[in-house]
Design a protein that fits this description.
There is one protein chain. Helix content is about 30%, strand content about 25%. By secondary structure, the chain is an alpha/beta fold. The chain starts with 6 loop residues before the first strand and ends in an 11-residue tail after the last helix. The protein has two domains: about 240 residues, Rossmann fold; about 210 residues, Rossmann fold, CATH 3.40.50.880. The strands form six sheets. It has a nine-stranded mixed beta sheet. The protein has a seven-stranded parallel beta sheet with strand order 4-3-5-2-6-7-8, with helices on both faces. α1 packs parallel to α2. The longest helix is centred in the C-terminal third of the chain and has 18 residues.
Length: about 475
């Protein structure tokens, strides 16, 4: 077997971490993405963990799609491969961590931001919430440098600084008792420049004045952080010796699509991993964007991807759009392959209850959902496939995540489920993924890198549907893998 020659790849990178959630990582990450892109650098942003909202804000700040990196969902080699595949196009990578630097799914810190930084051999810039803390922060930083081996803690940023005296004591203490440089000190801000709600940052779809916000936080960071030094640290990240990348196998638009898959993307539904859409294209699908809020006509489609989002925020509009609801019901009855995640599942239910009001939805499944004030399911999932369906092979094991404030109020006794969860909440007990003809809908979100055959199966099902409806007048029969 011929060994592929190794090449050196230099991809400047920096990981933004914190001591806990809410320490100030998003503001610094967004500001750095925006500032460096304004300097003419092509910035690739990454978000650690299964997160759509922060990733979308990072995309807006950098001007390019952000990607998610997750040591639970992906193997180390998959993380490195995805990261490496962007190195030839981008000048700089900014990786925003989640929770605390060493927080993972167990006492070993598995799947933590620190583990991700080691996988990527990335310097770490640690954001420190210094509220009512000065010299003690030096002890915390010293502990971080000693807690795990092979972590490159390259610098720290002080946050929530009350004034010059607070800043100077904290800075001098850290630099006296540790060898970690302090690269800046962010002042306390009167108002959060990015409003938050139950799922973290508020949706970009609901927030006006984004450019003014980026300018505002960019000014705060450029005035209080040595941005040039941050770039220097990123450029000091070691080069990799890796096999040359072959790149994506299919260039969209080069060949006629095998089938056309509609992707619902509007102010209600926009939770999608860019790699999922790319995976569908790589398998030969044409992608068209559709809306369930608009009453506009749809083109011919052979599959439908209905992602998550916030249907409750526009429930009145969704409920009032009888054209879209009727269209979805008709396509489902005809056997169109439809894959729906979380918010998409809520739309396919009979109704959605939110803040005391009940809104009729598409009614593909005889189930009602209600949005609560606290999470009803939150975290990673592991599942086995227990029923034939178009998207997964019977007996296949998958991993994913769920984060939903809604739950099912009722489920028909005859309901067919696709997934049995070994980990997670799902819809009912340990079950998730309702089935109707060629529709699969549930609370589980998957990433194409952790569900290796999902995209190929989806496109194959869409192709089968296309050929059937062109040659037959009745509904398409149930499609299964294998």
């Amino acid at each position: 077997m011929k060994t592929r020659s190794l090449i050196q790849v230099h991809f400047p990178r920096i990981t933004i971490a914190g001591l806990r959630g809410g320490s100030g990582k998003p503001i610094l990450s967004l500001a750095l993405c925006w500032l460096f892109s304004r300097q003419g650098l092509k910035v690739k942003a990454y978000k650690k963990g299964p997160d759509y909202i922060d990733a979308k804000w990072l995309s807006l700040a950098s001007g390019y799609h952000a990607s998610n990196l997750d040591p639970f969902l992906f193997s180390s080699s998959q993380i490195q491969s995805l990261f490496r595949s962007r190195a030839d196009f981008f000048d700089l990578a900014i990786i925003e961590g989640n929770r605390g630097l060493f927080d993972g799914k167990d006492t070993r810190g598995s799947c933590s931001t620190a583990e991700l930084a080691r996988i990527l051999d990335s310097p770490v810039l640690l954001v420190l919430d210094c509220t009512k803390v000065t010299r003690t922060m030096a002890a915390i930083v010293l502990g971080c440098t000693m807690f795990e081996e092979d972590l490159n803690l390259a610098g720290v940023i002080l946050n929530q600084i009350a004034g010059a005296r607070h800043r100077d004591i904290a800075r001098r203490s850290i630099e006296k008792y540790t060898h970690v440089p302090v690269l800046g000190a962010l002042p306390k801000l009167g108002d959060n420049p990015i409003p938050e709600r139950h799922m973290g940052l508020i949706s970009h779809e609901e927030y006006t004045g984004r450019e003014e916000m980026f300018k505002s936080i960019g000014q705060v960071v450029s005035d209080n952080v040595d941005v040039d030094r941050v770039l220097e640290l990123a450029c000091q990240a070691p080069a990799w010796r890796t096999p040359p990348m072959s790149g994506r196998q299919v260039t969209p638009g080069m060949n006629p699509p095998r089938a056309v898959i509609g992707v619902v993307r509007d102010k209600a539904f926009w939770f999608y991993y860019q790699e999922n859409l790319e995976a569908l294209q790589d398998q030969g699908a044409g992608i068209v964007e559709l809306s369930l809020v608009s009453r506009a006509d749809w083109p011919e489609i052979h599959g439908l991807y209905l992602g998550g989002g916030f249907p409750e925020t526009v429930a009145q509009e969704l409920a009032g759009n009888d054209i879209a609801k009727s269209r979805i019901r008709d396509l489902a009855r005809k056997g169109l392959p439809i894959y729906a995640e979380c918010g998409g599942f809520m739309y396919l239910a009979e109704s959605l209850e939110f803040q005391g009001q009940n809104f009729p939805m598409a009614g593909v499944f005889p189930v009602q959902t209600k949005v609560f004030k606290k999470p009803q399911g939150h975290g990673y999932i592991r599942a086995g496939i227990i029923s034939p369906n178009p998207f997964y092979a019977l007996g296949e094991k998958i991993v994913g995540h769920e984060f939903h404030y809604s739950r099912c109020l009722s489920l028909d006794a005859e309901a067919r489920f696709c997934m049995r969860l070994d980990r997670g909440t799902g819809m009912k007990g340990c079950l998730d993924g309702l089935l109707y003809k060629n529709v699969l809908a549930g609370y589980a979100h998957v990433h194409a890198l952790s569900a290796a055959n999902w995209a190929a199966n989806f496109v194959r099902a869409a192709e089968i549907y296309r050929e059937f409806v062109r040659n037959n007048s009745g509904p398409c029969p149930d499609i299964t893998c294998g």
